[in-house]
Design a protein that fits this description.
- By secondary structure, this protein is of the alpha+beta class.
- It has one domain (3-33, 40-364): Sandwich (Jelly Rolls).
- It is built from 10 helices and 15 strands.
- It has helices at residues 3-21, 24-31, 47-54, 77-92, 105-120, 123-127, 178-202, 209-212, 282-287, 344-352; strands spanning 57-59, 65-67, 95-99, 138-141, 156-162, 218-226, 238-241, 247-252, 258-262, 265-268, 276-280, 297-299, 307-316, 323-324, 342-343.
- An 8-stranded mixed sheet has the order 2-3-11-8-13-6-5-4. Strands 1-10-9-12-7 form a 5-stranded mixed sheet, with no helix packed on it. A two-stranded antiparallel sheet has the order 14-15.
- Helix 4 (77-92) crosses helix 7 (178-202) and helix 5 (105-120) packs across helix 7.
- The longest helix has 25 residues, at 178-202.
- It is globular.
- The mean pLDDT is 92.
Length: 367
Amino acid sequence: MDNSKESQGDRIKQLKAFDDTKSGVKGLVDAAAGGVVDIPEIFIRPPDEVAEDLALVRTSLRVPAIDLNGVDNKGSSIRGKIVEEIKQASEIWGFFQVINHGIPMKVLQELLNGVREFNEQNVEVKKEYYSRDPERMVKFNTNYDFYMSRAANWRDTLIVDMLNSYHLDPEDLPLVCRCATINYLNHLTKLVDTLFELLSEALGLETNHLKRLECEKGRTLACHYYPVCPMPDQTLGVSKHTDASFITLLLQDQVGGLEVLHGDRWAQVEPIPDSLVVNIGDLLQIVSNDKFKSVIHRAIGNPSRARTSVGCFYHGVATPQKIYGPIKEIITKESPQIFREFTVQDYMMKFYSRGLDEKSGLNYVRI
């Protein structure tokens, strides 16, 4: 028998055995004898990937932090300064943090606490939500690409999928984080509207241009829990990837671990209390005709502390199908169109049918 096929068969058996426990990575940690976790082979990264990472060094440069205080004064010099800062960050980094964004600290903390409590509660309660059914709006599992990736990631995720249905019934959410999740989503609405206004202005467009494209419509909330990781050099919390979104807003606790590839160096996104991380996704890079950059990022595990983060991905309109493409006002003789038109549904299908650690989906629509 072909050894590679036999090895792949063994791996699939190991993946299924883990998945059938419905306990997630946290279940492995809880079951560890004497508190020492023996990381299963399915989580160990291939040697070539580890070697590739070792060739990249870290930089002391920091992702820009942008103060949104005064942003509502349209036409003011303060707003103009904020727009310029967002333009620079979106073109050079693809990432920035925002402070004074208007969402109360209590709202942020209650969500992080709720996500942590969901993951640290009795496993039998969590099992009720464990699923890989793409039609289920609220589900809990380990890695959406569990059966496709070269190595599984050391994290569990509670997913709220509002890509095709914009109505979320609060009763579908776990009780322990229900109110905190709804409260957070409600508070995000105004901030996201403001961010799309600022990004429109940063592209030299009318303030409501991206809003008219309904970039904020379909969204996915991913509540990540990264258990203590005894071998962070061998297994990642999230593999390096770009996001299949227009923008992503990330709430992270103070543990840290998010890294952004800036040029050929990894830059840490150090947590700023009460801040939110904003990153440009593939879809905004496409419609901006490559002006704004969707950059590779990843999350590193922590050997002594569990980490919690919540990402909200804004995908635009998936159903009914809507055609998106580079914004005509941006295309010029000097900056000709470099991407084809696409539908969110098609782009997302391609995204979910490949491993998170594979090449960017931008190649699907590049002319």
